[in-house]
Sequence to fold (305 residues):
Amino acid sequence: MESKTPKTPEWPLKVKLFIKIYKARLFLQNHLRKSKFWNNIEEKGNDKMAVTIDLKGKKAVVFGIANDKSIAWHIAKRLNDAGCRIFAAYQERTEQMSVPLIKTLDNPIYEKCDVVSDELLDSFFKKVKEEFGEVDFLIHSIAFAKREHLQGKYMGIDRRGYQVAHEVSSYSLAELTRRIAPMMKKGGSIIAMTYLGSEKVTPGYNIMGVAKAALESSVRYLAYDLGEQKIRVNAISAGPIATLAASGIAGFPEMLLNYVAKSPLKRNITADEVADCALFLCSNLSKAITGQVIFVDAGYSAMGI
Ligand SMILES: NC(=O)c1ccc[n+]([C@@H]2O[C@H](COP(=O)([O-])OP(=O)(O)OC[C@H]3O[C@@H](n4cnc5c(N)ncnc54)[C@H](O)[C@@H]3O)[C@@H](O)[C@H]2O)c1
Fold:
C-alpha cells in the first residue's frame, strides 16, 4: 500500500479563533469537574447501579478522538474513569483539539497516527509496544469519505472515493487488529463503530453505508481469526450523534428527527450511552460475546416503518 504522511494544514483565522474558544471551554470544564459543586450535580444525575466495572491495570489503545464530541472521546473517558490507561491516536489535522483533551485523562499516552500512512502506523505501534508492552482493548472509532460522496446519488461515487472510504473506514480495522493482536497476550476486546446505513438505505450515507457493511463483515471474520486467542471483536451500531464526522452527511438533521419520531424510545441517543456499551464490551460481563453488531439506537433498527 502507498505510504503518505499527511501535512499539517495552515488553519484560517476563523478556525484558529474557534480552537482558542474550544481550549478555553475545556479549561473551564476541567476546573468545574474537579470542584465539589460539579460532583454534587453529577451524583444527583447518576443512576445508582449494582454492578461497577473495574478496569484497573488494563490498557486501551483508542483511535478517533478529534474533539470532545467524538464518540472515541466518550469511550476513552469512560474506560479511563474505570481505571484503564489510555494510549490515544490522533490525526495531525485535529492535534490542536485532540491533545489538550487527551491530556485531561489520568496519565495518558498519545501519539499522532494516520491509518493511510504505513510510516506513521509503524512508529505508532512501536511506541505502543515500548510504552504498554501488553494491550487489553482496541477502540476503532474512525471513518472517512469525501464530503461530495455523502450527498446525492450513491452511483456518483468514483473509484478513488470508493477506495479511500474503504481504506480508512473498513480496511483499517484489519490493519490495526493485525498489529495489536500479538500484544493482547491475555486475550482482549476490540470494538469498531458502525451505523445502520450498512444494512438499510439511508439517503446521503451512500459510500459510508457500503464501507460499514464491509466493516461489519470484517468484525465477524476477525472474531473467527482471533477467537482461540480469547480476543473478542464486536461492533457497536450507534444511532445518529452530532459529531464532526456526522456533519458531513447530507440529511443528518432528518436522521436525528426520524429517531425521535420512530424509535421505540422516542429519542436520540448520547455518546455516553455508546460509551456505556463499550465499557460492557471491554468487561468480563461480555466474555461470551464476539463477532456481533450491537445496536445502541433507542431501538430504531427494530422498526419496520
Ligand atoms: N456520529 C454518528 O452519528 C455515528 C453513528 C454511528 C457510527 N458512527 C461512527 O463512529 C465513529 C467515530 O465518528 P464520530 O461520529 O465520533 O466522529 P469524529 O469526527 O469525532 O471521529 C472520526 C475520527 O476519525 C478520525 N480519522 C479520519 N480519518 C482518519 C485517518 N485516515 N487516520 C486516523 N484517523 C482518522 C478523525 O481524526 C476523527 O477522530 C466513525 O466510525 C463513525 O462512522 C458515528
